[in-house]
Write a structure and sequence with these properties.
elongated, single chain, 264 residues, alpha+beta, 2 helices
């Protein structure tokens, strides 16, 4: 009795069916997942936001200066080769902020450091006179590396206005010396005006001073006027010989003769 079994054709058919069963599903799945030929795929593109450009910062405006009654004068000083007095000029700066004398400008003042006496500074119509600090020193120098005479150096002095526009103003004068040999530098004068009380006192004292000056002038003129009115003396006092009048009956007596007795 034959055992049941599979013939060769039957096995071939079974293998074909298994192959179709194994490969059929992925092929169909791939077809479903792929777009139809000739149909472009639609891609959703999100718009890209352009970053905001930073706005240009506005030009910075300088902060308003603090209120003060201090006056600051800035000048250029130069040491002329033909004189000992320092000449002062208007100051100018180039685009690189390098200071120097204003081109073509004339002198506007002087600074004098006499051998005897105190230093003085003249600016315009005002003469400033320096005065000592409480320690008695007028000139205070700061040298480079604290080596005396080394430049650049700075000289600071106290001063006060004697007359003119800045009469009774007081403050400091700072000379910034660039180099040796009279190369010059920058002079900065910072001045505080006199107090209202000092101004009132000066105004009250001025008329009295003017009256005193007039009285002194009048006193000097009076002796001169009296001397002009006196006649010129031709004979020294005490040397003039007075001739006594003659008495009737007497003989005139000349100098050196004895008197003659009248006849009886």
């Amino acid at each position: 009795m034959r055992q049941p079994g599979f013939t060769a054709p039957g096995l071939l058919i079974i293998m074909v069916l298994l192959l179709i069963g194994v490969t059929g599903v992925p092929v169909a799945a791939r077809q479903d997942a792929s777009p139809a030929a000739g149909t472009p795929e639609v891609i959703d593109i999100q718009p890209v936001e352009t970053p905001a450009q930073p706005t240009a910062a506005p030009a910075a405006t300088p902060a308003p200066a603090a209120e003060t009654d201090v006056v600051t004068l800035v000048l250029w000083y130069q040491n002329p080769a033909d004189q000992d007095i320092i000449a002062l000029y208007p100051l100018a700066t180039d685009p690189g902020f390098v200071a120097g004398p204003a081109p073509g400008a004339a002198t506007v003042g002087t600074a004098d450091f006499p051998v005897d006496g105190v230093p003085t500074v003249v600016v315009g119509d005002t003469t400033f006179e320096t005065y000592p600090r409480p320690d008695g020193v007028i000139e205070r120098w700061t040298w480079l590396d604290d080596f005396e005479g080394a430049r650049p150096g700075t000289l600071v002095m106290q001063l006060a206005g004697l007359d003119g526009t800045y009469q009774n103003y007081f403050g400091t004068a700072t000379f910034v010396s660039r180099d040796e040999g009279g190369s010059g530098g920058v002079l900065t004068i910072a001045l505080r005006p006199p107090s209202p009380a000092a101004v009132a006192e000066q105004d009250a004292a001025q008329p009295a001073a003017d009256d005193a000056a007039v009285d002194d002038a009048a006193a000097e003129e009076a002796p001169a006027a009296e001397g002009a009115a006196q006649p010129e003396a031709t004979v020294d006092p005490g040397t003039e010989i007075l001739v006594e009048p003659e008495i009737e009956g007497e003989v005139p007596v000349t100098e050196g003769e004895a008197p003659v007795e009248p006849a009886a």
